[in-house]
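User: Thanks for the earlier help. One more: mannan endo-1,6-alpha-mannosidase. Can you show the sequence and predicted structure together?

Assistant: Of course, both are below.
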Amino acid sequence: MRLICRIIGMVVPSVVWAMSLDSSSSDSIRNVASTIAHGAMSYYNGNVSGQPEMVGDLPDPYYWWQAGALWGAMLDYYHFTGDSSYNDVVIQALTAPVNTGPQHDYNPPEHFDELGNDDLGFWGFAVMAAAERNFPQPDPSVPSWLTMALNIFNALSSRWDTTTCRGGVYWQVFASNPNGINYKNSVTNGGLFQLAARIARATGQQGYADWAAKVWDWCIEIAIDALLRCFCIPAKDRILVCPPTYGMYSVSAQVNDVGLVKVPLQPAPEFGLDTQGICDALSREKGVKLAYLCSPGNPTGSLLAKEDVQKILEHPTWNGVVVLDEAYIDFAPEGSSLAEWVTEWPNLVVMQTLSKAFGMAGIRLGAAFTSEPIARLLNSLKAPYNISSPTSALASYAASEKGLQVMRANRTKICAQRVRLLAELPKINGVGRLRGGEASNFLLFEILDTAGNPDNHWADRAHKLLEAAAYFFDNKILYEPACEPNDSCNNDMKFLKGYLARFMWQPTYHLPSLLPQVKILLEPSAVAAAQACSGGENSVTCGQKWNIGGFDGRAGLGQQMCALETIQGLLIGESRSPLGDGEIDPARHAGWNGRRTAPTVPTNQSVFGPEEDVDVHNEGGHQDETSGGRTTIGGLASPSWIGVCAATLAGSYYILVEGLLHAGACCFLYETTSFL
């Protein structure tokens, strides 16, 4: 327990008013952000409490990790608005030994009783933001921001564990905290992923980009990996795949030391199964235990003929398991799924997911339909805490009648857009023939002139994650579907919209093509958030729900931070891109480059220290980021250069969709005929 619990006293202004945000006016955005930032910082008194152990920390009911998130939000506040009012407090918090720990890796003994690996992620995001902006750090006895970010990464990556789940980092650090020491959650591993990508860009070192790719691949391979571990003996057995197909089948085989037998699909545009070739291979090749088929195909977007799948199932001598991946089946015509076939074919496993049509990629949850014997075998390998309560709540909502209605409505819109794109894309120079995709939510076209074009797979992932984020918007207003509809949000969940907003805005520095889509979602949300900041005695206190047109009576630090991070991001076009390799230079001066503005709401108490005169300096306008002749637009130079495009965005979804910071197992098995 913390030693203090301060009751926040709202300051009554001379005139009661409600905020009105003009999202097209930089001055309006800055004024509203200033007011909300002041409200957020009123929850912090660690610098004047007289208790050194509270420096940088928050009073109950808030946690140490939420303090790290607050300092990240306030670093963004200065970067976007130029208001340096709180910078001294931020520096004190981020450099206090009670937070950095003796090794300057943010593993402080003072917080061992509550320390989770995900906590390091939030403090790491703040420290990394300071490094990427050359945020001044006057005390030469404290390592540079980048050095401390590297220390955090090293602490997290050193905890990568291969004894279970073939990788991943556990949620908790110490066995003394049993609530999470035995499972690996998405937010922890998403935090490691994001830090690795940002450090790769900041240092130019490929090893960190490799770590980002490693964590990403591990998080998406779990279900495929489970089947391999159930049926295949390492260094002996093999699986059959039909390229071009989903790449994780081969990756999981390699990780598990399982061999590959490849029988290519028929040529485009059919992309059908070579049933004769497959049957011959199953008869000829020894030790093939699994045959992975993908329908609709990835990347082909084409359905496999049912009669072709049946021929594989009816193979007279092969007794292996056919795994049919139906991740995109909801975009195919009705009746295309073969899930019902599991009652007839005991050697069939049909995998589906909430990641595509339901737009819930971040929770890494799906369903496997199979026979009872295989289901028992899969469930016997399941971790004790394989699915978190928030994940279960989101899945239950998705499977409810309302959730299904939302999914079907979105699917109808997507399919209508598919028809439009089929007609319009061929009119664009450089776009050739359609090669597949008429049964999926993507289209496969020929690109006629690819000379010199880079591999944009990370950019593609970022766009897909942004598409998935639409699930968290109701009529273009950001909301928390796991708890806001029934007023059940706990303290952690009240912060999460802000993290999503932060990590939707930030990738647009590196991938400007994201910005129009991000603004479509977040600009109306920012206006609605400002309207929700109309409560309390001062009429500027922020509430939880933004889709009711005003204050809902639920105030707190999380509500302030969510509104602040959504609104201040509107200024991203006027701010400088994060610095990269060769540009980061620790600044050891004590002055601030920025303007100090008084809080919009008058105050009769000093929480932040005395006012000082400072120089005014414009940080510079936002540009398409370049360095050393390399550009992130159309010419992404390397994974270390582009990793952050997806990393900051993807990290957000690992964080947000879990619902709770105490949540989410990456190491899970799909349940039979159930989302839970």
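User: Great, one quick takeaway?

Assistant: The first helix runs from residue 26 to 41.
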